[in-house]
Each structure stands twice: as C-alpha cells, then as structure tokens.
Amino acid sequence: MPATRLRSLQALGIFCGFAAGAWLGGAEAPIKLVNPDISPITVSLIMVFGVFLARWSVPAFIRGTSHVHSDVRQAPHLIVWAVLAGCMWAVANTLTIYAIRNVGLSIAFPLWNTNSLLGIFWGFLLFNELHYAGWKRWLGVLGGAACMFYGAALLAIASAHQAAPGKATAGILAALGAGILWGTMYIPYRKAYLTGMNPLSFITFFTVGELATMTVLAIAYRGATPLWHELIGAKSVMFWLMLGGFVWVLGDLFQQYATKYVGISRGIPLSNTNQLWGLLWGIFVFHELRGGSHTIYVQVAGGSLLMALGALSIALSSATAREHSSWQDAADREGNRYGIEHEYVRAGMEGRAYGGISTGRSFVDWLLILVTTVMFAILAFMAKLPHMDIALGWAAALTIAMLALLATCGIALWRTTRFR
Amino acid sequence: MSPSKADAPRNLFRAIFTDLHFWIPLIVLLAGLVLLDKLR
C-alpha cells in the first residue's frame, strides 16, 4: 500500500474513533429520560429492538444490502463470527446492569473499561498489532490506555450516584466479566476486518446474535407474560429507548471503522472517550453535578484531562508501514485458512473497491428504510417527555456538535473509502 | 454441483472449528453466561 494511502487510512480510523466516542456517549441521553421503575433487562431489550432496526436500515440507506450479499459470498464464515460477537455483546451488556446495581457506576465503569487493555493484548497476540511498532508507539498506546483508565476511574467516582452495600463481590465480578466479554468480542471484529469485510455487512449479522440472546435472556429472567406486560406498559418511553439504540448504532458503526483502519489496540481506547461525552450530557443538560463539592469538580476536571491526554497519546501513535505489513501477514493467514481471494482481502484492507458490485438500492432496501421510519414515527407520536429539568440550549449545542462530527466523519469515510 | 462446491460448507465449518480464535470468544461467552446465571 502506498505510504500516503496508509497515512490517510490511519488518520481516518483515528477520526472515526473520536466520532464513535461522541455518538456512543450521546446514546446515554435519551435513556436518561426514561422512568427508572422499568426493569433494566426490559430497558436493554427495548434498546436492542432499536439497535436491530438501525443495524439493518442504516446499511440499506448508505450502500444498499446488495453489498452485504456480496460480502457474504466472499467470506461466509464471518456470519458465524458476527453472530458470536453479537451474543457476547448482549451478555456483557446484561452483566453491566448487575454491576451498576451492586457496586454503582463509580466502581463498575472503570472495571469494564479494562476491555481496551484486553483489546490491546488480543490485538498484539493474535493479529500482529504493535509488532515492529517501536518503544515510542508502545509507550503511546499503553500509556494512553492507562491514562484513560485512571481518567475514567476519576470521572466515574465523581459521577456516582448509587452504591449498594453488601453485594460488592458480585458487582465486581459482573463488571470484570463485562470487560472481559467486550475485550474478547473484538477478536471477531478484527477477524472480520482483516479479512476484508465491510463494517456495514458485519453489523447486520452481529445484531442477529444480539437480539436473539437479549430476547432469550429477557424471557428467561422476566418470564414471557410479565415481560410482555412490561413492554406494553413502557410504550410511552419506547421511543426514547429505541432512539438511544439508534444513536448507539451510529457510534458503534464509527467504532467498527476505527477497528478496521487502526486496529483494536487503538480504535477501542479512542471510542472509550464516550465516557467524556456521557459526562458532558450529564453535567450540562441534566444538571447531574449541580451543588457538588469542590472535590467532585476537581475529580471531573482531572479525569477529563487524563482521558483527553490518553486519547491524544493513542491518536499520535498510529501504525507505521512496518507494523502495517505485519497486519497484512495476519490478513494473509486468515485468507489462506478460509480460502478467501487474496485480492478481496487486500482491497478490504486498503478500503478500495473489489469486483463489479451493483450499486444503488433495491426495493428491499427502501422497504427497510420505510419500515424503520414509520415505526419511529409511530413511537414518537406515542412518546411522552417526562417532567425533568433539561437545559435545552446545551442539548441543542451538544446535538449540533455530534451532527457536525457525523457529517465530517461521514464525508471523510465516503471520500477516502466510499464506506468500505 | 461439483465435488468442491459440495464440500465447501463442510470445509468452512472445519476451518472454523479448528481455529483457536473461534474457541477463545466462545469459551468467554459460555463463562459469561455461567456468571450471569450465578448472579441472578
């Protein structure tokens, strides 16, 4: 790959990592509008409904599902990987509910954020990431991830509202379990992108595992009839939860592109800046730290600064040509194992076209977009805005910032790779 | 259907099941489910 192309793909991946942080963090905002009486499992299930709709309609809107079909023909084994990753996500997400309930957000969040450290480990061990990277890049990535971990811990302590005593061990185990599941979930991600699969194709199968596992867990834990009654009772907040899921998918899509172009060792820590964005929404829009002590504000300022410095350090440690060539060795190994055409793998890694895929959208694509739009419109019509003290000016400002990132990163992805 | 085409799914699953990268996430997923069951 020419050096200029490698540089532009690396810059694109880092940009996607930051955009992912903004959108993943912003996804927390609609969920804050929901009555806390609804069970966390049901909240999670409704969000996953929104996620499912988004994961099929967004790819249909951006490129059309014909590309998904084409990708699957080239690398059918990745369906298994995507579904497996989706199952892992659903179990991890459910564990976080138990973690927050038992030890509070302050302890749980930094514990499951260890997923990025595990991601670095798997990236190095299995996919040749950080090989021949030199000590400066090692220091940049590991030091940056450590900075972000401590920053996350400070922010979580400052923003903690609840802590249930007496169940510490269970909560810590749940949080660590979620971190291990999410950190290991990046193995299928990296596997897919090294082999040339488009993130828009991967997420359509990922969500099948996600929805199936979440549905089974919800029925097993709540019982079919009580769950149904709870879903019916939650119709006035369904819009907000599904909107949260939709926003989350856009963030996750950027995270997938970041993983594809800068690997899991850099992409995941960068998208973990979502905690900073979640905090911005919490402080400015929902007045969460109003009247807090001086110590809390010092923790927030220190934690934010550490997270920003960590992200900057990782962003400045992009892969060299030598490291990238070792990624290509890992990609060749995958291609040989699964009998995938060499040119398909190379084209995927370089973000360029492969073969004569028909462009444009089919009737099925328009139907997916229409069904999703109509469903959201109906739910919006039924939705009620709770009586909360919300700073609408700040909400508008943060939404504009997120949309600006969506537009600029989307244009960059289109110009550089045509969303490949 | 040619023999190579007919063997394709079997070869595919053999490639997946003999891949260490498949077993690591699967074992972690199963352990996660066990943990979740214990925490209920």
Give your account of this protein's structure.
The complex is a heterodimer of chains A (420) and B (40). Chain A has 420 residues and is mainly alpha-helical. Chain A is globular. Chain A is built from 19 helices and no strands. Chain A has helices at 3-26, 28-31, 40-62, 66-74, 77-103, 105-112, 115-127, 134-158, 168-194, 199-222, 224-233, 238-262, 264-271, 274-285, 294-315, 321-338, 342-349, 363-382, 392-417. In chain A, helix 3 (40-62) runs antiparallel to helix 10. Chain A has one domain (3-353, 369-417). By secondary structure, chain B is mostly helical. Chain B has one domain. Chain B has helices spanning 3-17, 20-39. Chain B is elongated and about 45 Å long. The relative contact order of chain B is 0.09. The mean pLDDT of chain B is 82. Chain A binds chain B through residues 76-77, 80-81, 84-85, 87-88, 91-92, 94-95, 98, 122, 126, 170, 173-174, 177, 180-181, 184-185, 187-188, 191, 217, 221, 337-339, and chain B through 11-12, 15-16, 19, 21-22, 24-26, 28-29, 31-33, 35-36, 39-40.
Please outline the helices and strands:
The complex is a heterodimer of chains A (420) and B (40).
Chain A: H1 3-26, H2 28-31, H3 40-62, H4 66-74, H5 77-103, H6 105-112, H7 115-127, H8 134-158, H9 168-194, H10 199-222, H11 224-233, H12 238-262, H13 264-271, H14 274-285, H15 294-315, H16 321-338, H17 342-349, H18 363-382, H19 392-417
Helix pairs in contact in A: 1-12, 1-13, 1-14, 1-19, 3-10, 3-12, 3-18, 4-10, 5-6, 5-9, 5-10, 6-8, 6-9, 7-9, 7-13, 8-15, 9-12, 10-11, 12-13, 12-18, 14-19, 16-17
Chain B: H1 3-17, H2 20-39
